[in-house]
């Protein structure tokens, strides 16, 4: 089981201004799926940041279903879920019970709807001991969705007040999309006026405010 970490450094001036102006640090996690109609969710949120802050997570997953609709600024709650590993399948019964079983697509998590009731579905990943949903996709009756988690994380500071699980289609502010597929630890810095920086490295890219997040975080 792999552990991942992003270390963020900021000046005391930036930290003071962020806190005084009501900013929080938000994170979004990327996935790969052929299913259409998916949406990225706020995966991680904190106001407990200092001049040196680390965002960490583990390769531990849950598959979930929900009755919440996928709408902009709506919140999707993982109403029913089960622990799941890569290359396993989460089976959803007509009554909305969910359980994992062996067998599935390699490096991905499959969700199989055994009934004809439609659900909102997705996967959650553990960060700081808490599993929050990363994405939401439609799971139709008798349908099979396959979702592969990708170790890419979008970080942004914003004063918008939203909770984990919120459907967000466009970035609230400038962010940094950080690729950890070739390394389990990255170091970046943030300045409230100059934005994110990571030197000359090519494992991250800037994401401007109001950018569409679906092409960045829900890839096919």
Report on this model:
It is a single chain. This protein has 220 residues and is mainly beta. The chain has one domain (3-219). It is built from two helices and 19 strands. Strands 2, 4, 8, 9, 10, 14, 15, 18 and 19 form a nine-stranded mixed beta sheet that branches. The longest helix has 9 residues, at 12-20. It is globular and about 55 Å long.
Outline the fold blueprint.
Blueprint: E1 3-9, H1 12-20, E2 24-33, E3 39-40, E4 44-46, E5 52-58, E6 61-66, E7 80-84, E8 88-92, E9 98-102, E10 109-113, E11 119-127, E12 130-133, E13 135-139, E14 144-158, E15 175-179, E16 185-191, E17 195-197, E18 204-207, H2 214-217, E19 218-219
Parallel strand pairs: 1-16, 2-19, 8-10
Antiparallel strand pairs: 1-5, 2-4, 2-14, 3-13, 6-7, 6-11, 8-9, 10-14, 11-12, 11-13, 14-15, 15-18, 16-17
What keywords describe this structure?
220 residues, nine-stranded mixed beta sheet, six-stranded antiparallel beta sheet, mainly beta
